Every structure is written in C-alpha cells, then in structure tokens.
Amino acid sequence: MSNVTLEKILKDIDEIHRDLARKSLDIRLGRTAVLNTGDILESHQTPLRPKTWEFLKKTMRNFEDKEGAERIERVLYACADLAIEEQVASLADMLNFYMERGRMHVEDERVPALEVVPWLQGEADFQKRETMLSECNIFFKGIVNPMLLAMLELTIRAVKEKFGFSDFAAFCEKKKQADFNKSADTYQDYLTSTQDIYDANMAPWVEEVIGRPFENIGRFHALYLLRIKTHDRYFPVESLGETVARTFRGIGLDLSTRDDIKTNLATYTSKNPDGVCIGIEIPGDVHVLMKPVGGLIDVETLLHEMGHAFFLGHFDQDLPLEYRRIYRSPALDETFAFLFMELIENPAWAVNIAGMPTDQADELARITRVRKLCLIRRYIGKFLAELELHRRGNIKNHEPYCRRLHEATGFVYEPQGYLVDMDPDFYSYDYLLAWAGANVLRNFLENQFGAEWFTNVRAGDFLRMIASSGRRYSLEETLISACGQGPSLPHFS
Questions:
Q1: Which of 306, 308, 311, 274 is nearest to 290 (CA)?
Q2: Residue whose C-alpha is closest to residue 219's, from 431, 462, 493, 413
Q3: CB neighbours (10 Å) of residue 50?
Q4: CA angle, 281 as apex, 278 and 285 as ends, to 5°?
Q5: Are 115 and 139 spatial neighbours (Cβ–Cβ below 8 Å)?
Q6: What's the order of all strands across the beta sheet hosting 276-281?
Q7: What confidence score (pLDDT) does residue 4 get?
Q8: Are residues 279 and 21 in contact, defined by beta-carbon separation less than 8 angstroms?
Q9: Three-state DSSP class for 112?
Q10: Alpha carbon 290 to chain centroid distance?
Q11: Which of 133, 179, 441, 460 is in the most buried spot, having the most CB atoms within 10 Å?
Q12: How far is residue 49 CA from its own chain's centroid?
C-alpha cells in the first residue's frame, strides 16, 4: 500500500467526477458519450480498492485534529459512493438505454419515456392521463423495475459487505451526519401540524383544476395540477433567458460576462427534457441545461438550476477538493437552488421582474405556497417510506410507499411506481433540509435588505460570501453562522 497516497486518491476521485460530469453533459445534450460509466471507473481504480479504504480509515484514526479527520472521512465516503456506483454501473447504463428508447402509446401519440413528466404536466385531458398511467405501469413492471430492484439490491449488498453497515439507511445517516429516526419524528409532527391547512387548500384546488373530488385522484394528475398553468402567459419562452438574467444582474451576477457559467436553452428532439446543472470544474466550468416548454415551469426550472450555478460558480478556487467536489449532503447546494426558484412566491419579483399585475402576483404567491406545502409533505412521505423500507429490509414491498405518500399528500400512489419514485442516496432528506434552509435564508435576506433583496448587490455579496466556503460547512453550520439560526421548515397559515 506504500504506493498509495491521499493525493493519488483525491486525484482519481477528481478525475472520475470530471469524466462522469462530461458523460452526463453529453447524454443530456443528446450526444453519444465517449465512455460509459464502467469504463470511467475502470480507468481510475484507486478509490475502488478495499486496501484504499483501509488506508483511509487508518489515516483518519491517526489524525489528532478534528477537521483533518473529518476531511479524510469525506474522502472515505466519496470512495464508498464510487464503489457502489461501480456495482450498479452496467445496469444503470442499460436503464438509460431503455429510457431513451421507450415509448408510451396514448391514442395516436407515441410519447418518449423521458418526456412522460412534461407530457403529463401539460396534458389537460383527464382520461389521457389515466391512459398514460396504465402505459407507464406496464413499462415500469416489465422493464424498469427489475433493473431498479437489482440496482438497489447491489447497493445494499455493497454497504453491508464492503463497509459493514446494517442497512442502507445507516450508511446514509453516517455519511450525512444525520439522525434519521429523530428527523422522522420531526417530520411526522410537521405533517400533523399542517394537515388542516393542507386539506382546506388542496381539496378546492384539485376540484377547480382537475374537475373531480380530491378523493382517489392519482399522482399522475397531481403533475398536471402542480404545473400551475394559470399564469403561463406572463412567462413566454422568448423572454425566459432575459427574465432570469435580469434576476441575477440585480445581485451583481452578469451572466453575459461569465464564461465559466454556460447556459443551454436549445430545444430539439434528442435533448433530455430535465433541467440540470453540471459542474465539470468546480468552480470554472459549470453548465446549466434545460428544454423550455413555455410558461411558469420554465422560469422556475431555470431559476433553480441557476441557483446551483451561482453557488458552484462562487467557490473559492483554492479550497481543497474535499470542500469543492465532495459533500456529505447536497442540502446546502439545494438551498441556493430553492432560494432562487422560490422568487416566484415573491410578489415584488413577479411585478418588477416578470411584469405581472399586482393582483396576479399576489394570486401566484398564494397558489405557489399551497403547492410548496404539497411538495414538502410529499417529500416527507417519500423520506418516511424509504426509511421504513430500509429499516425493515423488505425492499420488494411497495406498501410503505403507497401508504406513506397517500397519508402525506392525499393522492393515490400506484404500486408499480415505488422504485421509480424512490430518490437515490436518501435525497428526499436533503430536499427537506434544503426547503428548511431556503426558508431561513430568504427570511434573513428580506429582513436585512427588504422584499426586493434580489435587486440589491449587497444581498449578492452576502450570498457570495456563503458560497466562497464551498461545501466545507454543513447547512446547519452555515445558517447558524450567517443567519443566526438553523434550518426550519416554513410555517403555513
């Protein structure tokens, strides 16, 4: 093991992540990737070797200062994540192949599998959405779920046999430095405390938009509801780029002068419809991609991904790799994304940037807050379902998913969708933390700089100050230091 050094391990981790990011960029743009995931991992073996993990554990034990040991532990978990990725790489590439080529038949339409979500968000016909559900259930059951189940089994086996954890939840808890059981109790209390206001707002909204009673409405119809098409006329495709650019200019980020942040809003058939931010070099080469469809959903998506880009684009370039490329939890990253995405809830932004009349801006703020409560409750349901699934160890059992999500949202969740809807790496937990983080950060900005904080360069300086530390500190540490309090989910009244 004498030929292995921490510098060599970090170099390989960096190169793997860079190559995987380039591969992701190619696939998202509809190009053929030069290398598959297995090839990339095969070419940088050091982080994948058991002797490397033992070397890191020994090095960590020998560190006397807490920060040094913590940095080594981050590297160890980065190696563990790559070892898991190696286990599932061939199945993941196969799944991508079928997702790219799968087609759903709805009357005379053939909808690509990758386009199902935007199709559902835009399809006003209730019966067509029901048909899409039937089509997807067949696709999930026959093609997607067997691969997802095999990938999950391989993941669980890896964390047990290679890293000695009792289950996948325990692995994620240790990596994220979290207490999932404590979080589950907190989130269950949040569901209880928001139940009445949720019911009072969701039932009439569902009946108004869907045209049917809330009872027994499936989740595919929720996608159409949550799209919020009523205000689309204020967000045409042709003004999308300038609307978002004007938002960020207000806090001192002129995207036209930043060669390191590249935005691709092109629309063509082979391009992946999902919005994404990909950091090839962090900072230095950050890409934001999306495929506009027109309307509010476009500006939300682009604000979200540009929030990621703002964060990644302002890291101190001299930070060690452990604080640039590696994180324990992406909650701080997602906090920046939610902060900017949720500007649509701010009537001052809707009037001054989007040019909406005041009454329409107020109505948009009201309805987007109802939707946010729905989404928070949905992710609480997902987290509770995933935790129950892994604690019990019966990963073939869809019952916790259907039950927990129905209890949290009121919508019906089909059994065939439980694996497709499950977030990797307990990302549902990170999203919930990020909503709580964005709530605190936004309140602080509004208290310090007013409701129009997005027009104040000093607010931008404050956010750049936070971003300059990269991923060194947890979300809670960051908020306590910068805002004086830890993450807290929003209150609804």
A1: 274
A2: 413
A3: 11
A4: 70
A5: no
A6: 261-264, 285-289, 276-281
A7: 86
A8: yes
A9: strand
A10: 15
A11: 441
A12: 29
Residue 2, pLDDT > 70, answer no
Alpha-carbon gap, residue 153 to 145, rounded angstroms: 12
Give the pLDDT of residue 341.
98
Q: Which two tokens stand for residue 432?
A: 């919930």
Torsional class of 201: left (φ above 0), alpha (ψ -120 to 50), beta (otherwise): alpha
Q: Which tokens sit at 75?
A: 């590297």
CA distance 79 to 13: 8
Per-residue pLDDT tens for 423-462? 889 999 999 999 999 999 999 999 999 999 999 999 999 9
The long-range contacts involving 201-208, CB below 8 angstroms and separated by at least 24 positions, are: 201/370, 201/373, 202/370, 202/374, 202/410, 205/367, 205/370
pLDDT of residue 477: 98
0.85 surpassed by pTM: yes
Residue 337, judged by CB atoms within 10 A of its CB (0-12, 13-18, 19+), counts as buried
User: What crossing angle do the helices spanning 358-392 and 219-226 adopt, rounded to 10°?
Assistant: 150
Instruction: Let me know: does 169 contact 180? Beta carbons within 8 Å.
Output: yes
The reported pLDDT for the residue numbered 1 is 41
Helices 168-176 and 358-392 pack at an angle, to 10 degrees, of: 130
CA angle (356 as vertex; 355, 359 as ends), nearest 5: 150
3: burial class by Cβ within 10 Å (0-12, 13-18, 19+)? Answer: exposed
**Assigned token pair, 338:** 């939610």
CA distance 125 to 136: 17
What pLDDT shows up at residue 35? 85
Q: Tell me the pLDDT of the chain averaged across its residues.
A: 96
Share of the chain above pLDDT 90, in %: 96
Q: Tokens standing for 183? A: 């979080």
Let me know: does 143 contact 98? Beta carbons within 8 Å: yes
**Nearest in space to 280 (alpha carbons), one of 88, 461, 17, 10:** 17
Contacts of 104 (CB under 8 A, 6+ apart): 110, 111, 112, 113, 116, 132, 135, 136, 139
In this predicted structure, the answer to whether residue 3 has a pLDDT above a threshold of 90 is no
The reply to whether omega before 112 is within 30° of 0 (cis) is no
What one-character-per-residue DSSP string does 179-203 give? -HHHHHHHHHHHHHHHHHHHHHHHH
Q: What's phi and psi for 216, nearest 5 deg? A: 70, 25
The predicted pLDDT at position 344 comes to 97
Of 202, 141, 182, nearest to 384 (Cα)? 182
pLDDT digits (tens, 9 = 90+) for 43-99: 999 999 999 999 999 999 988 889 999 999 999 999 999 999 999 999 999 999 999
Q: What per-residue confidence (pLDDT) applies to 33?
A: 84
**CA separation for the pair 410, 403 (Å, rounded):** 10
Fill in the amino acid letter for 289: L
